[in-house]
Design brief:
This protein has about 280 residues and is mainly alpha-helical. It has one domain. It has 9 helices and 2 strands. Strands 1-2 form a two-stranded antiparallel ribbon. The two termini are about 35 Å apart.
C-alpha cells in the first residue's frame, strides 16, 4: 500500500515574540508596604510626643496612653493597624502600577477609529499602510493587529494552500499574540482582588482583639473607671474596622475600573482579529 502523505498546510512559523518583563514588584511591594505601614504606625502615629502618658521604654509596641488627637488614637488600635496600613499602601502601589501598564496597553487615540483605518487600508490592499497605523497606535490592540498583518502579508504570497488554511493561519497568529498581551494587562490584579476580602477580615480580627482586650480590662478593674476604659477600648477597636473597610472599598473600586478597561481592550483585540480574517477571506479568495 502506498504511503499517504498529509495535505500541505500553511507554515506554522510565527513572528510573535514572548514579552519579557520583571515581576520584582510582585515580591518586593508587599514586603516594603508592610514595613512602611509599621514605620508609620510606630514612629509617626506612635511618637511619644503625641501622648500625654508616653511609654518611654519604647520597644516594638510601646504602651502609650492619652493620645492628643483622634488621629493618634489610631495607634492604640493595636498591632493589626500597621498591617492594615500596609494593605492600603499595597492598594495604592498596585493601582499606580496597573494604571501605567493599562494606559500603555491602551495606546494612543481611539481604538475604534484605529480599526476603521486598518479596514480602509486592507480594503485597498495596502498592508504596509495598515502596519504603519499599528506603529502609530502602539497599544495592545495594535500589537495584535500588527502580528496578524505580518502573517496576512506572508499568506498573500503563499500559493500552495487554500484560502481557508491561510485564514486559519492568520487567526492562529492573532490568538498567539493575544495570549501574550492579556497576561501583561491582568498581572497583579490578583493583589487588588485579594485585598478586597482580606482587608475586611484583617480589620475584623483587629476589632475582635481590641474587644477582648477591653472586656478583659473591665473584668479585672470593675466600677465606673473600667466602664470608661471599655468605651475607649471599643472606640480604638473600631479604628481597625474603619481602616479595613476603607482599604477594601478602595481596592474594589480600583479592581473594577481596571477590569472594565481590560475588557474594553480585549473587545478591541477580538474585533481586530475578526477584521483581519474577514478581510483576507473576501480579498484573496
Amino acid at each position: 500500500m502506498a504511503e499517504t502523505r498529509p495535505t500541505a498546510t500553511a507554515k506554522a512559523t510565527t513572528s510573535v515574540q514572548p514579552k519579557k518583563s520583571s515581576n520584582a514588584i510582585s515580591y518586593l511591594a508587599p514586603i516594603i508596604c508592610i514595613i512602611a505601614g509599621y514605620v508609620i504606625w510606630r514612629f509617626i502615629l506612635g511618637d511619644s510626643g503625641n501622648f500625654t502618658k508616653p511609654d518611654l521604654n519604647g520597644g516594638f509596641w510601646p504602651a502609650h496612653k492619652g493620645p492628643k488627637g483622634a488621629w493618634y488614637r489610631m495607634y492604640e488600635g493595636g498591632i493589626i493597624v500597621p498591617l492594615l496600613m500596609g494593605l492600603f499602601l499595597m492598594v495604592v502601589t498596585f493601582s499606580i502600577e496597573r494604571y501605567l501598564t493599562i494606559r500603555k496597553a491602551s495606546g494612543t487615540g481611539n481604538v475604534s477609529d484605529f480599526i476603521r483605518k486598518v479596514q480602509f487600508h486592507l480594503a485597498n490592499k495596502n498592508v504596509d499602510a495598515a502596519m504603519a497605523e499599528c506603529d502609530k497606535q502602539k497599544g495592545s490592540v495594535a500589537n495584535v493587529m500588527k502580528a496578524g498583518l505580518r502573517k496576512y502579508r506572508e499568506m498573500i504570497g503563499v500559493s500552495d494552500v487554500s484560502t481557508d488554511q491561510k485564514v486559519l493561519a492568520i487567526q492562529a497568529e492573532v490568538e498567539e499574540a493575544t495570549a501574550l498581551e492579556l497576561p501583561m494587562m491582568q498581572k497583579n490584579l490578583v493583589f487588588l482582588s485579594t485585598i478586597v476580602s482580606l482587608g475586611t477580615l484583617v480589620a475584623l480580627l483587629g476589632t475582635v482583639m481590641g474587644m477582648i482586650r477591653s472586656f478583659a480590662s473591665l473584668g479585672e478593674e470593675g466600677g465606673a473607671g473600667a466602664a470608661s476604659e471599655l468605651a475607649v477600648g471599643i472606640s480604638e477597636a473600631l479604628y481597625n474596622t474603619a481602616l479595613g473597610i476603607g482599604t477594601s472599598s478602595v481596592a474594589l473600586i480600583m479592581y473594577n475600573i481596571f477590569t472594565t478597561k481590560i475588557d474594553s481592550i480585549t473587545y478591541g483585540i477580538d474585533e481586530s482579529g475578526f477584521t483581519l480574517t474577514q478581510s483576507f477571506a473576501s480579498q484573496y479568495k
